[in-house]
Amino acid sequence: MPKPSEHVEKADWAALAEEMNAYGCALTGPILTAAECGEIAGLYDEATRFRSTIDMERYRFGRGQYRYFDPPFPDLVEELRQAFYPRLLPIAREWADKLGKPSPWPDTLAEWLGMCHRAGQPKSTQILLRYRDGDWNALHRDLYGDLVFPMQVVVGLNKPGADYDGGEFLLVEQRPRAQSRGTVTLLPQGHGLIFTTRDRPVRSSRGWSASPVRHGVSTVRRGLRHTLGLVFHDAA
Questions:
Q1: How many of the other CB atoms lie within 10 Å of CB of 165?
Q2: d(CA 212, CA 200)
Q3: What is the 3 state secondary structure string of the chain?
Q4: What tens digit of pLDDT does each residue of 123-170 get?
Q5: What span, in angstroms and rounded, lies between the C-alpha atoms of 193 and 110?
Q6: Cα separation of 18 and 16, whole Å?
Q7: Per-residue pLDDT tens over the stretch 60-106
Q8: Does the predicted TM-score (pTM) go above 0.85?
């Protein structure tokens, strides 16, 4: 059986880059089996695996709960983030070039995370999220310090329509001198969704402009929804 990293490698990265450039998000296709999804989701109740737990309602982030993994990460989580980084890197560098911004990201994830740690961002940011009936996530950006990777990945761990209803992934882009544009994605079990962390380049009358992007999750109307969040910069 192919490993998750092999599924990431075999994805159509040219097509995914085109979708990222057009919409700011792109579905990868299946990268985890149902059993692997269950394995990761089942970790949520093992509190010792996590460095902190966030109650979203308490902080007015929405409603629901998520937990930050404490290193060392589970094998599947580490495998996925190591597989995604080099594939996302060319898109990140292209975006920086279009916007005339520095491209600080080195060739390996280990080097990049070392830069984060030296800049005072040493805390792990791999996230496991749990939503129940009535839970939702407000529009936001996952920014934890000055060093930011421009894309991240969320992986669906439950089956929409069977395990839960609602809970669509929301992306809202504030386009230059225009109304905001929203994109809604139903995240299939085992599939990854690549999306914009902070902003992305869009064509404007002056060439390229940075279009701010926020993301969130619509209200879960029924059931239980877990997702794995892969963030490629650490936190202050």
A1: 15
A2: 7
A3: CCCHHHHHHHCCHHHHHHHHHHHCEEEEEECCCHHHHHHHHHHHHCHHHEEEEEECCCCCCEECEEEEECCCCCHHHHHHHHHHHHHHHHHHHHHHHHHCCCCCCCCCHHHHHHHHHHCCCCECCCEEEEECCCCEEEEECCCCCCCCCCEEEEEECCCECCCEEECCEEEEECCCCCCCEEEEECCCCCEEEEEECCEEEEEECCEEEEEEEEEEECCEEEECEEEEEECCCCEC
A4: 999 999 999 999 999 999 999 999 999 999 999 999 999 999 999 999
A5: 23
A6: 5
A7: 999 999 999 999 999 999 999 999 999 999 999 999 999 999 999 99
A8: yes
Rounded distance, CA 213 to CA 107, Å?
Answer: 25
Tokens coding 130: 């749990």
189-221 CB burial, b ≥16 within 10 A, e <16: bbbbbbbbbbbbbbeeeeebbbbebbbbbebbe
The pair of three-digit structure tokens given for residue 168, joined into one six-digit string: 């669509």
Residue with tokens 């594939």: 87
